[in-house]
Amino acid sequence: MERREALKKMAFLMGGAISATTMSVLFESFTVYNPEQRTTYSFLASDGEIFGEFAEIILPTTTNSPGAKAAGIGTLIPLLIKDCYPLNLQEIFKKGFEDMLAKCRTKFNKEFLNLNTAEKNQLMKELKQETIDNNREPSFFLIARDLTLLGYFTSEIGCTIAREYLPIPGKYDGNADYIPGQKAWAI
Amino acid sequence: MNINTDLKKQNTYDAIVVGSGISGGWAAKELTQKGLKVLMLERGKNIEHIKDYDSAMKAPWEIAYCGQLTQEQKRTHPVQTRDYPYQQANESWWVNDLECPYTEDKRFDWYRGFHVGGKSLMWGRQSYRFSDINFEDNKKDGHGNDWPIRYKDIAPWYDYVEKFAGISGQNEGWPLLPDGQFLPPMDMNCVEKSVKERIEKHYNKSRILTIGRSANLTVPHQGRGNCQYRNLCSRGCPFGAYFSTQSSTLPAAMATKKLTVRPYSIVNHIIYDEDSKKAKGVMVIDSETNESMEFYAKIVFVNGSTLGSTFILLNSTSEAHPNGLGNGSGQLGHNLMDHHFRCGAEGTVEGFEDKYTYGRRANGIYIPRYQNFKDDKRDYLRGFGYQGAASRGHWHKEVAELDFGGDFKEILSRPAESWTMGLGGFGEMLPYYENKVYIDHSKKDKWGQPVLAIDCEYKENEAKMREDMMYDAAEMLEAAGAKNVKAYDNGCYPGMTIHEMGTARMGNDPKESVLNKWNQMHEVSNVFVTDGSCMPSSACQNPSLTYMALTARACDYAVKELKKKNI
After folding, report:
1. I need a labelling partner for B412 at 20 to 30 A (CA). Which of A57, A133, B259, B435 fits?
2. Residue B497 to residue B85: CA distance in whole angstroms
3. Min Cα separation B85/chain A (Å)
């Protein structure tokens, strides 16, 4: 019974933390429909290029697979923001996006698209740290990174090149050998 | 005058089946195969097998919005979006909540699909028999009324429906989960096998773990293809590999050439004939034209889903039945139940890093009820079972650490370091008279009908049970050697399990129940109700298989009685 008491305490402490270890938790918990907030932001076509470059820093092209830009994340991010997020989150996203662009100008004296790789990585580290310091409250960095992961690993490139996609496996083997380095199944 | 006579003749059948889901499909199949001319009425659109499974063959990148829901979908589906079943890939198979509102005196999540096949297209496919312990519990502890049948009455019908539907599973000889007529079981994976062995040893076989019994074909069966392990069942199966109305009962019924299916037909009420004291037919609203019309038959099977059926019965008032058809007992609308879930435990299992899976199994493992049985006494009544699975997923700690970059991408392209094993409880809910539905005339749906009001809640027995659902799971996982074991209770509201049951219960006493032991109304002998509304108790097993068996049994009885001219 002592062990049971210990388990009880642990469950209390953990609360809903188990589900917080899934990739889309941010998306699921913050995008509840809000009837008062039906208008949506629109993005400039040129913003798509910036989102694509941003996503490329999160998941860049590597020797094994093309990156997020090639997977079309640049156009996916504004689409999802516009149609799937309530206005309060769209505002956070938009504000954070503009702050990031301004930061590039003050910090590097450059437009975002002109940053070199080292500058991009430095920028991203700072955005990451700001998000951690802010108790991981929804931010441009958090939302855009989350959408990059979601979009990339459901894209054709993510599913079929980064990972391996089996449309019709035809059988189930629950004791297959894992070959070191083997890719994950896409879904 | 002739025109009216012709119309009446044209609209007259031997039997009317209201609803086309799991139980309605079975009723149509059984009644037509026994020679009756049957009209099956479905309130929603038609969905043609395979042809209309629009997303079934789509790749992940072909699903809009990466599978996420839009704000507009959340606006039009405020109830359906409360939990996981309403998905981008099958979103058109769930109701627009704004068109068919209901009143929640207390929160009740009502998941509905209005189309031919009903929820048989989207169901979870887990198929478990009830045991005599379930059929006797009401009588033993005094909650609810006694079931008018015992296991021996339904056992041959479980055999019958399993053989046709195709249920894969493993016989275990477990007293609380009777064996069945199974197709070969699906495989457990290496971690599940290890967990099974260790749990069964630790508890000296007073608990068992078996592969889920699922209405997915492991071998070709009845002209249908076997499961291809895509785990996309809820989009409709192009191989016909899981049981649905479309894959199974509907083709069998159509083959008799005695079935007429009429989609877009909302049954508003059953027409009662004061002279014969029987139902003479149903009044239908065409959901596209709003036109109302009547259809007539010798018998009516009501299979509109638990609350859909009870709505029709409550809405079928007459001088003889002022409180709803066959409601002399006053029990119609009462004793609403669901199961309760969303609590259990999970942990990681080490030592299988050199193993992985091939294929996506649309099934998990099952631990049947073991509580309040033999020496295992609890401080609440009845019990629960577990569904679960072990898997090696995609999760990496770097996701939570907000990493980015090339190395991060490579890590995410590999499977998780270790396997996780989860156990989620499914608990029995007691029948409570005060958990009820009634008609709310203050609101109207899109077709001008009054709406249903639902007043239902879990009580102390369920709350106590949930503690054990968490900690028993955690203890078992620890006994199985799992690490980082975490218990959780994510909360549950009635309706969420989509196992709503009761509100037109069976029983021997007409003063205490709506239906007799043949699912026949005590007071209106030619009306049968064989969906979830007939259930006097919920047990903790997934209930659809029991609806199938009760339906086939009731059809057999009804046709025999018709032939004897008793109805």
Report:
1. A133
2. 10
3. 14
